[in-house]
Amino acid sequence: MKQKLYIASFIVIGVCIIILLIVFAFFIVHFKGQPISDKIEYWGQFGDYFGGVINPILALGNIFVFVILTVTIQNITDKNNKTALETSKQIALMSIKHEELKHFKETMDKNLEQWEEDLENIQKIKQVLYSYNVLEYRMMFLFPELKDSEHNKKLRIYIVEALDNHKTGRIKDAAHCHIPVNNTYAMLVSDLGRWTVL
Asked: Which of 42, 48, 114, 143 lies 20 to 30 Å (CA to CA) from residue 56?
């Protein structure tokens, strides 16, 4: 766009100069045999002649400059508006991600804490898994990275493993799963915190 404006500017300036040269040449050719006058009124008429020719050309040049400035300012304004809109979108998305992460952490912290109070209670493990399923589904839209996250996969495995151990009567193994669940959960929250920043 800038290059086109520069080319157009040079073309208009060139045309104006050519027109001025043609007018000046026409005047010289037409009055070449005349002596240069000492009378001020003739010089006034000469000035009127050139002013009458130059003023419309300068007016057209001014209009062209005005158009160029208007287009340039509009382009800059559009670019700034687009940048501001994109920044606003990113800030809004970061805010939404932050709120979702906060909700995820509060819910999971509460459920893991309740499980920790009674490690052998199968209902507590089921509640952790149920909450995790709901939260993961909600967060997939904002955090597509969850799909490939190793911590996310491990956390699910540990919770399901604790539930399976409890169902098969290995309650102590189910209770021992609580430690890796907590560690993996902490790593996942750390990952989510990083993914909140765009």
From this structure: 42
Q: Output the pLDDT for position 88.
A: 93
Total Cβ atoms within 10 A of residue 97: 19
Q: How many domains does the chain have?
A: 2
pTM for this model (two decimals) = 0.63
Question: Exposed, middle or buried: residue 36 (CB in 10 Å: 0-12, 13-18, 19+)?
Answer: exposed
Q: What is the domain range of residue 65?
A: 2-88
Nearest to 119 by CA among 182, 184, 183, 188: 182
Are the C-beta atoms of 9 and 68 separated by less than 8 Å? Answer: yes
Q: Quote the Cα angle for 166-170-173, to 5°.
A: 90
Q: Are 134 and 93 in contact (CB under 8 A)?
A: no
Closest alpha carbon to 97 in 186, 196, 198, 191: 196
Q: How far apart are CA 188 and CA 180, in angstroms?
A: 12
Are 136 and 151 spatial neighbours (Cβ–Cβ below 8 Å)? no
**Low-confidence residues of the chain: pLDDT under 50:** none
